[in-house]
Specification:
Layout (H helix, E strand, L loop, with lengths): L4 H34 L3 H7 L13 E2 L16 E11 L10 E12 L4 E11 L6 E3 L6 E3 L3 H20 L7 E6 L14 H23 L4 E7 L6 H10 L4 H11 L5 H6 L4 H8 L9 E2 L3 H6 L5 E7 L4 E7 H4 L2 H17 L5 H10 L3 H17 L8 H7 L4
Parallel strand pairs: 2-7, 7-8
Antiparallel strand pairs: 1-9, 2-3, 3-4, 5-6, 8-11, 9-10, 10-11
Length: 403
Amino acid sequence: MSLDLSKTALQIDGMASDLRARHGDWERRLERAVKAARELTPDAYASRGEPWSGPAAEEAATVLDARDSHGGPPPPPADFCVAAVDGSHIDVDRHIPARSFLINSGIAVLTYGSRPDARLFSRPRLYARDDELVIRDDVTYREQPIEGAVLGAKRMVEEIKALVQVVGDLPKSTPTLALMDGSLVMLGLVGPLNQDFVLRELVEEGFVAALEELRVMAEDRPLVVASYISLPGHAEVVRALRTMVCSYGEADAAYRCGLRGPGRRPCDGCIGGVRDRDVYSRLLEPGERSAMFASSSPAVAKYYGGNDVHFFYLNVGEEVGRVEMPSWVAENEGALGLVHSLIVDQCHRGGGYPVGLMEAHEQAVVTEADRRYFVRLMEQALYSQHLPVYTSEKARSKRLRRL
């Protein structure tokens, strides 16, 4: 046995005891956050200012709605379609015989109503040419290898491009939800490690350009675009709530809180450690959604143009999920109602998670057996072309046991 579970179990018991001791304090912080959420309106938020504005500011949601919760969804249309996409990939690996990566986009097109139908399929694509493995700036000739977080962003671009193609082939008269898994904000891509030409290609010319194609399609057909996040870990709304509970005055809040830093400010002891979903699990009944908020992510502000990302929280019965959509969907009352209605319907059919995303995931997933077969296929192809096949001794040692 490589892991000593008896020693690990003792540490887990200690962790559980510590969490139990702190649970009462966490409950009090949650109650303060819930009380503040009931009072959180655009006017109340604006009147308190933004205490943590500045270079080290945390991202706090922009409040767009005066109601802390909304009623249940409108009934779904008699006929409608859900086009869902998910993806997985095989990353660049120096132990694989040829430098390459693979992106597999899984797609589920589910049609409900008078002519029910289901189409489930995947679109794998291998990237192996030198120019496919990097993002290159034609002006400065700088290069960024496509691996790690950059590959994750590349996969997200391929997913939404697949969604555009699928939606374009659907009947224009049928109300359609184009649904993605995870956030519409390309988190983790903006930062010092990724230069502007990388963000320009993946965000502006890739993801946002595809969003714009969907927006144009929606001009002459009943089409809405959204993403669903299960068990969200965000605290953007809670950060906005800090403006309601901060014990400092507006004039010196930014200065004092900036000096103290995260974990040491008065409001951290008041509502710190609470997540948005914790708050809305107390405020929302099954089927109800929260107020609408806008993401204040620097990536959205800089690269998304008119496709700002708005979101609400939704009690689907089994959990409180987060639903994100472009601003042009959120600002249309009919489109917003369709998103609310169809995601609740999808979660009901999927036992708490959108069934379209479940099926898309099944088409996209790459198992460990798939990865091994992928490597064998690559080795066979190289042998057939009389090319050398290399692998590391580390990779070989994992296949052959000596003891």
